[in-house]
Design a protein that fits this description.
CATH architecture of the largest domain: 3-Layer(aba) Sandwich
InterPro entries: Bact_solute-bd_prot1, SBP, TAT_signal
Order of helices and strands: HEHEHEHHEEHHEHHHEHHEEHHEHHHH
Strand order of the largest sheet: 2-1-3-9-4-10
Number of domains: 2
CATH topology of the largest domain: D-Maltodextrin-Binding Protein, domain 2
Strand content: 5-15%
Protein name: Carbohydrate ABC transporter substrate-binding protein
Number of strands: 10
Largest sheet: 6 strands, mixed
Structural class: alpha/beta
Pfam families: SBP_bac_8
CATH superfamily of the largest domain: Periplasmic binding protein-like II
Family: Belongs to the bacterial solute-binding protein 1 family.
Subcellular location: Periplasm
Protein backbone atom coordinates (compact mmCIF):
# COMPACT_ATOMS: atom_id res chain seq x y z
CA UNK A 1 0.00 0.00 0.00
CA UNK A 2 1.24 3.48 -0.89
CA UNK A 3 0.92 6.27 1.65
CA UNK A 4 1.84 9.75 0.47
CA UNK A 5 3.19 12.49 2.66
CA UNK A 6 -0.12 14.30 2.45
CA UNK A 7 -1.95 11.20 3.65
CA UNK A 8 -0.13 10.95 6.96
CA UNK A 9 -2.36 11.92 9.84
CA UNK A 10 -2.01 14.42 12.61
CA UNK A 11 -2.02 13.28 16.23
CA UNK A 12 -4.53 14.54 18.74
CA UNK A 13 -1.90 16.62 20.51
CA UNK A 14 -1.07 18.37 17.26
CA UNK A 15 -4.73 19.20 16.64
CA UNK A 16 -4.99 20.69 20.09
CA UNK A 17 -1.90 22.82 19.61
CA UNK A 18 -2.88 23.88 16.10
CA UNK A 19 -6.17 25.07 17.54
CA UNK A 20 -4.34 27.84 19.40
CA UNK A 21 -3.91 29.87 16.21
CA UNK A 22 -5.52 33.26 16.76
CA UNK A 23 -8.69 34.19 14.90
CA UNK A 24 -8.51 35.88 11.48
CA UNK A 25 -8.39 39.64 11.45
CA UNK A 26 -6.09 39.99 14.45
CA UNK A 27 -3.95 43.10 14.11
CA UNK A 28 -0.38 42.42 12.93
CA UNK A 29 1.70 44.15 15.60
CA UNK A 30 5.48 43.96 15.24
CA UNK A 31 7.36 43.67 18.53
CA UNK A 32 8.85 46.75 20.12
CA UNK A 33 12.41 47.24 18.98
CA UNK A 34 12.07 44.77 16.10
CA UNK A 35 12.96 45.87 12.55
CA UNK A 36 9.93 47.48 10.94
CA UNK A 37 8.89 46.33 7.51
CA UNK A 38 5.72 47.63 5.89
CA UNK A 39 4.55 45.50 2.97
CA UNK A 40 4.58 47.25 -0.40
CA UNK A 41 1.17 48.33 -1.77
CA UNK A 42 -0.42 45.49 -3.71
CA UNK A 43 2.20 42.99 -2.56
CA UNK A 44 1.66 39.29 -3.13
CA UNK A 45 4.06 36.49 -2.22
CA UNK A 46 4.76 32.93 -3.26
CA UNK A 47 6.43 30.51 -0.84
CA UNK A 48 7.73 27.13 -1.99
CA UNK A 49 8.26 24.60 0.77
CA UNK A 50 8.81 20.87 1.17
CA UNK A 51 5.77 18.61 1.12
CA UNK A 52 4.85 17.82 4.72
CA UNK A 53 4.99 14.34 6.20
CA UNK A 54 2.67 15.37 9.04
CA UNK A 55 -0.68 16.87 8.13
CA UNK A 56 -0.74 19.17 11.17
CA UNK A 57 2.49 20.87 10.07
CA UNK A 58 0.78 21.89 6.83
CA UNK A 59 -2.47 22.88 8.50
CA UNK A 60 -0.79 25.07 11.12
CA UNK A 61 1.53 26.70 8.56
CA UNK A 62 -1.39 27.57 6.29
CA UNK A 63 -3.45 28.84 9.23
CA UNK A 64 -0.60 31.13 10.30
CA UNK A 65 -0.20 32.33 6.71
CA UNK A 66 -3.88 33.17 6.49
CA UNK A 67 -3.60 35.06 9.75
CA UNK A 68 -0.78 37.15 8.21
CA UNK A 69 -2.83 37.80 5.06
CA UNK A 70 -5.89 38.83 7.08
CA UNK A 71 -3.79 41.27 9.09
CA UNK A 72 -1.81 42.81 6.20
CA UNK A 73 -3.80 42.22 3.03
CA UNK A 74 -0.77 40.42 1.51
CA UNK A 75 -1.89 37.21 -0.16
CA UNK A 76 0.65 34.40 0.17
CA UNK A 77 0.53 31.40 -2.14
CA UNK A 78 2.10 28.32 -0.55
CA UNK A 79 3.28 25.62 -2.97
CA UNK A 80 4.81 22.28 -2.03
CA UNK A 81 7.37 20.04 -3.68
CA UNK A 82 8.85 16.66 -2.79
CA UNK A 83 11.88 16.71 -0.52
CA UNK A 84 14.24 15.67 -3.29
CA UNK A 85 12.99 18.45 -5.60
CA UNK A 86 13.51 21.34 -3.17
CA UNK A 87 17.29 21.56 -3.64
CA UNK A 88 17.34 21.74 -7.47
CA UNK A 89 14.35 24.07 -7.63
CA UNK A 90 15.96 26.48 -5.15
CA UNK A 91 19.20 26.47 -7.15
CA UNK A 92 17.35 27.16 -10.40
CA UNK A 93 15.31 29.99 -8.88
CA UNK A 94 18.46 31.57 -7.44
CA UNK A 95 20.49 31.33 -10.62
CA UNK A 96 17.73 32.25 -13.09
CA UNK A 97 16.42 35.07 -10.92
CA UNK A 98 12.74 34.17 -11.09
CA UNK A 99 10.28 31.91 -9.37
CA UNK A 100 9.08 31.90 -5.74
CA UNK A 101 9.78 34.86 -3.48
CA UNK A 102 10.63 32.66 -0.51
CA UNK A 103 11.55 29.02 0.04
CA UNK A 104 12.08 26.58 2.87
CA UNK A 105 15.35 24.84 1.99
CA UNK A 106 17.62 22.13 3.37
CA UNK A 107 20.86 22.08 5.36
CA UNK A 108 23.53 24.53 4.13
CA UNK A 109 22.05 24.91 0.64
CA UNK A 110 21.79 28.73 1.04
CA UNK A 111 25.60 28.84 0.98
CA UNK A 112 25.56 27.66 -2.62
CA UNK A 113 24.03 30.96 -3.76
CA UNK A 114 24.32 33.50 -0.90
CA UNK A 115 24.64 36.47 -3.25
CA UNK A 116 21.17 35.65 -4.60
CA UNK A 117 19.53 35.97 -1.17
CA UNK A 118 18.36 38.92 0.88
CA UNK A 119 20.27 39.72 4.04
CA UNK A 120 18.04 38.93 7.05
CA UNK A 121 20.62 39.61 9.76
CA UNK A 122 18.50 42.25 11.48
CA UNK A 123 15.54 39.90 11.77
CA UNK A 124 17.71 37.01 12.95
CA UNK A 125 19.41 39.18 15.56
CA UNK A 126 16.09 40.46 16.88
CA UNK A 127 14.59 36.98 17.07
CA UNK A 128 17.64 35.66 18.87
CA UNK A 129 17.52 38.49 21.38
CA UNK A 130 13.82 38.05 22.10
CA UNK A 131 13.61 34.27 22.14
CA UNK A 132 16.57 32.98 24.10
CA UNK A 133 19.10 32.77 21.29
CA UNK A 134 19.63 30.31 18.44
CA UNK A 135 20.76 26.74 18.94
CA UNK A 136 24.29 26.61 17.54
CA UNK A 137 23.69 23.75 15.10
CA UNK A 138 20.75 25.30 13.23
CA UNK A 139 22.30 28.77 13.51
CA UNK A 140 25.26 27.63 11.43
CA UNK A 141 22.96 26.86 8.54
CA UNK A 142 21.82 30.47 8.28
CA UNK A 143 24.84 32.55 9.28
CA UNK A 144 27.86 32.96 7.04
CA UNK A 145 31.38 33.00 8.47
CA UNK A 146 31.39 36.81 8.35
CA UNK A 147 28.37 36.89 10.68
CA UNK A 148 25.70 37.73 8.11
CA UNK A 149 22.44 35.76 8.00
CA UNK A 150 21.39 34.79 4.49
CA UNK A 151 18.72 32.42 5.85
CA UNK A 152 16.55 32.18 8.94
CA UNK A 153 16.97 28.75 10.58
CA UNK A 154 13.46 27.39 11.05
CA UNK A 155 13.53 23.89 12.50
CA UNK A 156 15.40 20.65 12.99
CA UNK A 157 13.45 17.61 11.84
CA UNK A 158 14.66 15.12 14.38
CA UNK A 159 15.91 11.72 13.29
CA UNK A 160 15.48 8.91 15.79
CA UNK A 161 15.69 5.16 16.02
CA UNK A 162 12.20 3.65 15.80
CA UNK A 163 11.32 0.04 16.48
CA UNK A 164 8.52 -2.38 17.34
CA UNK A 165 8.99 -3.60 20.88
CA UNK A 166 7.32 -6.98 20.34
CA UNK A 167 9.64 -7.68 17.42
CA UNK A 168 12.88 -7.10 19.31
CA UNK A 169 11.57 -9.13 22.24
CA UNK A 170 10.97 -12.08 19.90
CA UNK A 171 14.62 -11.70 18.87
CA UNK A 172 15.64 -12.05 22.52
CA UNK A 173 16.14 -8.38 23.44
CA UNK A 174 14.16 -6.76 26.23
CA UNK A 175 15.54 -3.30 25.48
CA UNK A 176 17.02 -1.61 22.43
CA UNK A 177 20.84 -1.75 22.62
CA UNK A 178 22.39 1.66 23.10
CA UNK A 179 25.74 0.93 21.41
CA UNK A 180 26.61 0.02 17.82
CA UNK A 181 27.97 -3.44 18.76
CA UNK A 182 24.78 -4.44 20.52
CA UNK A 183 22.68 -2.90 17.76
CA UNK A 184 24.39 -5.03 15.11
CA UNK A 185 23.74 -8.12 17.23
CA UNK A 186 20.06 -7.22 17.45
CA UNK A 187 19.78 -6.72 13.68
CA UNK A 188 21.51 -10.05 13.10
CA UNK A 189 19.07 -11.76 15.46
CA UNK A 190 16.09 -10.27 13.59
CA UNK A 191 17.40 -11.65 10.30
CA UNK A 192 18.33 -15.05 11.77
CA UNK A 193 14.88 -15.54 13.30
CA UNK A 194 13.00 -14.45 10.16
CA UNK A 195 11.43 -11.47 11.95
CA UNK A 196 10.68 -8.06 10.41
CA UNK A 197 14.21 -6.83 9.77
CA UNK A 198 16.02 -3.56 10.04
CA UNK A 199 15.94 -1.20 7.08
CA UNK A 200 17.69 2.15 6.58
CA UNK A 201 17.69 4.36 3.50
CA UNK A 202 20.89 4.23 1.49
CA UNK A 203 19.66 5.88 -1.69
CA UNK A 204 19.96 9.60 -2.38
CA UNK A 205 17.42 10.45 0.30
CA UNK A 206 17.76 14.07 1.41
CA UNK A 207 16.84 13.26 5.00
CA UNK A 208 17.02 9.57 5.86
CA UNK A 209 19.97 8.73 3.61
CA UNK A 210 22.12 11.58 4.86
CA UNK A 211 21.18 11.05 8.50
CA UNK A 212 22.03 7.34 8.38
CA UNK A 213 25.30 7.70 6.46
CA UNK A 214 26.67 10.52 8.59
CA UNK A 215 25.78 8.66 11.78
CA UNK A 216 27.61 5.53 10.59
CA UNK A 217 30.79 7.48 9.81
CA UNK A 218 30.73 9.93 12.71
CA UNK A 219 29.94 7.28 15.32
CA UNK A 220 33.23 5.58 14.41
CA UNK A 221 35.26 8.80 14.42
CA UNK A 222 35.35 9.49 10.67
CA UNK A 223 34.70 12.94 9.22
CA UNK A 224 34.63 14.49 5.79
CA UNK A 225 37.03 17.35 6.62
CA UNK A 226 39.09 18.63 9.53
CA UNK A 227 38.81 22.05 11.18
CA UNK A 228 40.70 23.74 8.36
CA UNK A 229 38.49 22.23 5.67
CA UNK A 230 41.06 19.67 4.52
CA UNK A 231 39.44 16.48 3.24
CA UNK A 232 40.21 13.63 5.67
CA UNK A 233 37.44 11.15 4.85
CA UNK A 234 39.91 8.46 3.73
CA UNK A 235 40.95 7.45 7.25
CA UNK A 236 41.16 4.30 9.41
CA UNK A 237 38.10 5.50 11.31
CA UNK A 238 36.09 5.77 8.11
CA UNK A 239 37.22 2.32 6.98
CA UNK A 240 36.06 0.90 10.32
CA UNK A 241 32.69 2.63 9.84
CA UNK A 242 32.31 1.19 6.34
CA UNK A 243 33.14 -2.32 7.54
CA UNK A 244 30.43 -1.91 10.17
CA UNK A 245 28.00 -0.67 7.51
CA UNK A 246 28.75 -3.77 5.43
CA UNK A 247 27.90 -6.11 8.30
CA UNK A 248 24.77 -4.13 9.17
CA UNK A 249 23.57 -4.11 5.56
CA UNK A 250 23.62 -7.93 5.50
CA UNK A 251 20.73 -7.86 7.99
CA UNK A 252 18.58 -5.37 6.07
CA UNK A 253 15.40 -5.92 4.15
CA UNK A 254 16.21 -6.12 0.41
CA UNK A 255 16.25 -2.95 -1.67
CA UNK A 256 17.39 -0.34 0.84
CA UNK A 257 20.18 0.83 -1.48
CA UNK A 258 17.47 2.47 -3.60
CA UNK A 259 15.34 3.86 -0.78
CA UNK A 260 14.36 7.52 -0.75
CA UNK A 261 12.71 9.32 2.16
CA UNK A 262 9.29 7.72 1.69
CA UNK A 263 10.37 4.09 1.35
CA UNK A 264 10.98 3.15 4.96
CA UNK A 265 7.58 4.65 5.83
CA UNK A 266 5.96 2.30 3.34
CA UNK A 267 7.91 -0.71 4.60
CA UNK A 268 6.97 0.17 8.18
CA UNK A 269 3.26 0.33 7.38
CA UNK A 270 3.47 -2.95 5.51
CA UNK A 271 5.05 -4.65 8.53
CA UNK A 272 8.19 -5.47 6.56
CA UNK A 273 10.62 -3.72 8.90
CA UNK A 274 10.79 -3.81 12.68
CA UNK A 275 13.62 -1.28 13.10
CA UNK A 276 14.40 1.88 11.15
CA UNK A 277 15.32 5.54 11.64
CA UNK A 278 12.93 8.35 10.87
CA UNK A 279 11.23 11.46 12.09
CA UNK A 280 8.25 11.11 14.38
CA UNK A 281 6.06 11.19 11.26
CA UNK A 282 6.46 7.42 10.92
CA UNK A 283 4.64 7.04 14.24
CA UNK A 284 1.83 9.35 13.16
CA UNK A 285 1.35 7.38 9.97
CA UNK A 286 -0.10 4.67 12.24
CA UNK A 287 -1.38 6.40 15.36
CA UNK A 288 -4.78 7.58 14.16
CA UNK A 289 -5.80 4.67 11.93
CA UNK A 290 -7.49 1.66 13.50
CA UNK A 291 -5.95 -0.71 10.96
CA UNK A 292 -2.46 0.30 12.16
CA UNK A 293 -3.26 0.36 15.88
CA UNK A 294 -1.16 -2.73 16.59
CA UNK A 295 1.91 -1.10 15.06
CA UNK A 296 1.28 2.24 16.78
CA UNK A 297 0.90 0.67 20.23
CA UNK A 298 4.07 -1.34 19.63
CA UNK A 299 6.22 1.64 18.56
CA UNK A 300 9.15 2.85 20.65
CA UNK A 301 11.84 5.44 19.91
CA UNK A 302 15.30 6.51 21.05
CA UNK A 303 18.41 8.27 19.86
CA UNK A 304 20.70 6.34 17.50
CA UNK A 305 23.21 3.91 19.07
CA UNK A 306 26.51 5.25 20.36
CA UNK A 307 29.59 4.09 18.45
CA UNK A 308 33.28 3.79 19.33
CA UNK A 309 33.55 7.57 19.80
CA UNK A 310 31.63 7.08 23.05
CA UNK A 311 28.96 9.77 22.73
CA UNK A 312 25.80 10.42 20.72
CA UNK A 313 26.58 11.76 17.25
CA UNK A 314 23.62 12.86 15.17
CA UNK A 315 22.82 14.60 11.93
CA UNK A 316 19.24 15.79 11.66
CA UNK A 317 17.36 17.29 8.76
CA UNK A 318 17.39 21.07 9.06
CA UNK A 319 15.29 23.59 7.21
CA UNK A 320 15.69 27.36 6.85
CA UNK A 321 13.66 30.14 5.24
CA UNK A 322 15.23 32.23 2.50
CA UNK A 323 14.13 35.28 0.53
CA UNK A 324 15.38 35.58 -3.03
CA UNK A 325 16.76 38.91 -4.19
CA UNK A 326 14.58 38.72 -7.25
CA UNK A 327 11.40 39.21 -5.21
CA UNK A 328 9.41 42.31 -6.17
CA UNK A 329 8.17 42.67 -2.60
CA UNK A 330 11.15 42.37 -0.22
CA UNK A 331 9.46 44.24 2.64
CA UNK A 332 6.39 42.03 2.47
CA UNK A 333 8.61 38.94 2.46
CA UNK A 334 10.54 40.14 5.49
CA UNK A 335 7.33 41.03 7.32
CA UNK A 336 5.93 37.57 6.55
CA UNK A 337 8.92 35.82 8.10
CA UNK A 338 8.87 38.12 11.13
CA UNK A 339 5.24 37.20 11.65
CA UNK A 340 5.69 33.46 11.10
CA UNK A 341 8.62 33.35 13.55
CA UNK A 342 6.81 35.22 16.34
CA UNK A 343 5.93 33.10 19.35
CA UNK A 344 2.15 32.71 18.89
CA UNK A 345 2.63 31.43 15.35
CA UNK A 346 5.67 29.29 16.15
CA UNK A 347 3.97 27.70 19.15
CA UNK A 348 0.99 26.79 16.98
CA UNK A 349 3.17 25.39 14.21
CA UNK A 350 5.47 23.35 16.48
CA UNK A 351 2.47 21.94 18.32
CA UNK A 352 0.64 21.25 15.08
CA UNK A 353 3.69 19.39 13.80
CA UNK A 354 3.30 16.87 16.63
CA UNK A 355 7.02 16.83 17.61
CA UNK A 356 8.13 16.58 13.99
CA UNK A 357 9.77 20.03 13.93
CA UNK A 358 12.16 21.00 16.72
CA UNK A 359 12.57 24.80 16.89
CA UNK A 360 15.83 26.51 16.00
CA UNK A 361 15.23 29.16 18.69
CA UNK A 362 15.66 28.15 22.32
CA UNK A 363 12.68 30.17 23.48
CA UNK A 364 10.25 27.87 21.70
CA UNK A 365 11.40 24.54 23.15
CA UNK A 366 8.97 24.86 26.08
CA UNK A 367 6.10 23.67 23.86
CA UNK A 368 3.95 21.06 25.67
CA UNK A 369 4.04 18.79 22.64
CA UNK A 370 7.36 17.24 23.76
CA UNK A 371 5.74 15.72 26.85
CA UNK A 372 2.48 14.74 25.18
CA UNK A 373 3.64 11.25 24.16
CA UNK A 374 6.65 9.10 25.18
CA UNK A 375 7.55 8.59 21.51
CA UNK A 376 8.15 12.36 21.20
CA UNK A 377 10.91 12.48 23.79
CA UNK A 378 14.02 11.74 21.69
CA UNK A 379 13.01 14.33 19.10
CA UNK A 380 12.95 17.21 21.58
CA UNK A 381 16.75 17.35 21.67
CA UNK A 382 17.35 17.50 17.93
CA UNK A 383 18.32 21.19 17.67
CA UNK A 384 20.52 20.95 20.75
CA UNK A 385 22.46 17.86 19.63
CA UNK A 386 22.63 18.55 15.90
CA UNK A 387 26.09 18.24 14.37
CA UNK A 388 26.27 20.14 11.06
CA UNK A 389 27.01 18.08 7.96
CA UNK A 390 30.22 20.00 7.24
CA UNK A 391 31.84 18.85 10.51
CA UNK A 392 34.58 19.51 11.51
CA UNK A 393 35.18 22.32 9.02
CA UNK A 394 33.26 25.52 8.41
CA UNK A 395 29.97 25.47 6.58
CA UNK A 396 29.97 27.11 3.18
CA UNK A 397 29.85 26.41 -0.53
CA UNK A 398 32.07 23.32 -0.29
CA UNK A 399 30.09 21.61 2.48
CA UNK A 400 26.82 22.41 0.71
CA UNK A 401 28.09 21.08 -2.63
CA UNK A 402 29.44 17.90 -1.03
CA UNK A 403 26.10 17.29 0.65
CA UNK A 404 24.18 18.06 -2.54
CA UNK A 405 26.34 15.54 -4.41
CA UNK A 406 25.59 12.83 -1.79
CA UNK A 407 29.28 12.05 -1.31
CA UNK A 408 28.85 10.60 2.19
CA UNK A 409 25.68 8.68 1.30
CA UNK A 410 27.18 7.14 -1.84
CA UNK A 411 30.36 6.12 -0.03
CA UNK A 412 28.46 4.25 2.68
CA UNK A 413 26.11 2.61 0.17
CA UNK A 414 28.96 1.51 -2.12
CA UNK A 415 30.86 -0.12 0.71
CA UNK A 416 27.83 -1.63 2.42
CA UNK A 417 26.48 -3.29 -0.71
CA UNK A 418 29.87 -4.54 -1.89
CA UNK A 419 29.92 -2.37 -5.00
CA UNK A 420 33.35 -1.23 -3.79
CA UNK A 421 35.62 -2.27 -0.97
CA UNK A 422 35.62 0.09 2.02
CA UNK A 423 39.05 1.31 0.95
CA UNK A 424 37.89 1.96 -2.61
CA UNK A 425 34.72 3.71 -1.45
CA UNK A 426 36.64 5.99 0.92
CA UNK A 427 39.18 6.84 -1.77
CA UNK A 428 36.44 7.70 -4.25
CA UNK A 429 34.70 9.91 -1.66
CA UNK A 430 38.01 11.66 -1.01
CA UNK A 431 38.45 12.38 -4.73
CA UNK A 432 34.90 13.68 -5.09
CA UNK A 433 35.11 15.91 -2.02
CA UNK A 434 38.44 17.35 -3.11
CA UNK A 435 36.78 18.70 -6.24
CA UNK A 436 34.98 21.29 -4.13
CA UNK A 437 37.18 21.54 -1.02
CA UNK A 438 40.16 23.36 -2.49
CA UNK A 439 42.41 23.97 0.51
Amino acid sequence: MTISRRDLLLGATGLAAAGTVASPGQVFAQAAGAPKYTPEPGATLRLLRWAPFVKGDDEAWLANTKKFSDATGVQVRVDKESWEDIRPKAAVAANVGSGPDLMLVWFDDPFQYPEKLLDVTDIATDLGNRFGGWYEGPKGYGQTKDGKFVALPLATIGNGLVWRQSVIEKAGFKDMPTDTKGFLELCQALAKNNLPRAGFAMGNAVGDGNNFAHWIVWSHGGQMVDESGKVVINSPETIAALNYARELYKTFIPGTEGWLDINNNRAWLAGEVGVTANGVSIYYSTKNEARFKEIADDTRSSILPVGPVGKPIELHQTTSAIIFRHTKFPNAARAYLQFMYDKPQMDAWIGGSSAYCCPALKGFIDNPVWNADPVHKPYARASETLRPNGYAGPLGFASAATMADYVMVNMVAEAATGQRTPEEAAKRAETRANRVYKV
